[in-house]
Design a protein that fits this description.
The structure holds 2 protein chains of 2 kinds.
Chain A lengths: L1 E5 L4 H11 L3 E7 L8 E9 L3 H13 L3 E4 L6 E9 L5 H4 L7 E7 L8 E9 L3 H15 L2 E3 L3
Antiparallel strand pairs in A: 1-3, 1-4, 2-3, 5-7, 5-8, 6-7
Helix pairs in contact in A: 1-2
Chain B lengths: L1 E5 L3 H12 L1 H7 L4 E6 L3 E4 L6 H6 L10 E3 L2 H7 L4 E4 L11 H10 L3 E4 L2 H18 L3 E2 L10 H8 L5 E7 L2 H13 L3 H10 L8 H4 L2 H14 L10 E2 L7 H9 L2 E9 L3 E9 L10 E8 L4 E7 L5 H18 L8
Parallel strand pairs in B: 1-2, 1-5, 5-6, 6-7, 9-11
Antiparallel strand pairs in B: 2-3, 3-4, 8-10, 8-12, 10-11, 12-13
Helix pairs in contact in B: 1-13, 4-5, 5-6, 6-11, 8-9
The chains are: A alpha+beta, B alpha/beta.
The structure holds NADP nicotinamide-adenine-dinucleotide phosphate.
Chain lengths: 152, 338
Amino acid sequence: MTLMLADRPGELLKALQPIARNGGNIISIIHEREGATGTYVPVSLIVDFPSYENFRKARMALEDLDINIIKSEEVVERVRFTVLLIGRFDLKKILEAKIKDLKITGFEVSAPTSKEFCVRLNIEVPKGEVDSAVNELKKISREENVLFISSL
Amino acid sequence: MKAIIIGFGFIGKRLIEVLNQKISLLKRIDRSFKVIGVSDSRGYIFNPDGLDLKVLSKISGTHEYSRYFHEGSSLDLIEEGDADIMVEATPTNIKDGEPGLTYIRRALSIGMDVVTANKGPLVVAFRELKRLAESRGCHLRFEGAVAGAMPIFSLINECLQGDKIIKISGILNGTTNFILSKMHFEGSTFEMALKEAQERGITEKDPSYDVDGIDAACKVVILANALMDRDVRFEDVERVGIRGISPEAINLAKRANYTIKLIGVIDRNLEVAPKLVPLNHPLCVHGTLNALHIETDLAKELTIIGYGAGKETVSAIMNDIISVMKGRLAGQSSLTQS
Ligand SMILES: NC(=O)c1ccc[n+]([C@@H]2O[C@H](COP(=O)([O-])OP(=O)(O)OC[C@H]3O[C@@H](n4cnc5c(N)ncnc54)[C@H](OP(=O)(O)O)[C@@H]3O)[C@@H](O)[C@H]2O)c1
């Protein structure tokens, strides 16, 4: 995010406090002197927040301090994993599940001639959502009477 | 040091053979080492001056050593024998831990050091036994009870003393690993692979104990309680077995460079379930091998691989016996393996 900070001592520290309080880990700070207006200087920060919620709270706290946020952009790190489901079920149940921002990036089903239906899914979710996604998949599998196999 | 051995079956007999083979090693540590009693379900043999290990190696039941045989319970041997250490190897019973639990309680309460290979008492009453051992200043060691010959407790307690254990996961049952390996390499069905395991004599009498993850879940409980300072019971382990694994599922896993293994996991949760394991992961070992992957704050990751059952288990029991002997000589350092 880029903040417009008053060009006087202590302003940066003031801005960093709500970020730290909300679990933000500061990766880089750049003073963009060439964009300074005289009284204000743009400061670009790259911050790693544990979740979107922390990011949102930090942004609100900055606004409460009357700090002008001129740009804020979110890059969500995503994690891929593979699961296997054994037994017949409706794939729509997974697509319609309440799993935040889930993408199925690949799948393979057993041969149509095989006795038992099974499917391997490649799944992608935001980092930090893996546990809840796996738990939700487990729950659906139980409801559908399907054997769920997660990866190590 | 005077030892008694309770349970003279597969493990008890192998132990006697190894004690006989390695008696000079034991005598070098403690010149007075001798086995004064051995019991099974029919009775016990007892000689306060020491039993002849060569004779013991040749008999199939205690009653055959008629000169010193007594009809009576192992408790009589524990109470009257005046031994310093009891090695307990009676059958596992995870419902109430008996008969091993009573024997271990009794031995500890009269100040005897205990080495056991039996999961039952540890699953049912770990905390109680640990406290009892500590209050009596006795050793309680159980390396052979979990993952056979693999020195998981010694490794963590002696070599990772400054580490915090974050997670332990692994293959804790050799029978299910044998079955899943057969399915992976030979395309067998679960039923075919189980039958072969039974024919080779590597399953428990009740195969459910292996294939439904009961045995692995018991080991998860002991590892959690002994190494991660938890106070959990068998019912706390989320458990799924391998009966539902089809050849098609193994095939799909293989095509994405995975295989399926029954994995026990101890972290915030306790779980035994079939998992997809990458073919290049250190836990991906085959046949009857077991493997344990330990994650800690300092060492980060460690894996040990070895035989989780069978005669190799005696290695762990021997190390426990020797540790107790050395501990006694050095003035009783660490008493329990936790
Ligand atoms: N076998 C392995 O590979 C292995 C590996 C690791 C741990 N363990 C554990 O080690 C223990 C022993 O295993 P094992 O394979 O040696 O079993 P086993 O062959 O069945 O031997 C059990 C022995 O205990 C005796 N016994 C039964 N009830 C008794 C009682 N009430 N009082 C005194 N003795 C009694 C039996 O007597 P009888 O001979 O008269 O029936 C037998 O001698 C088990 O807890 C097992 O889980 C085994």
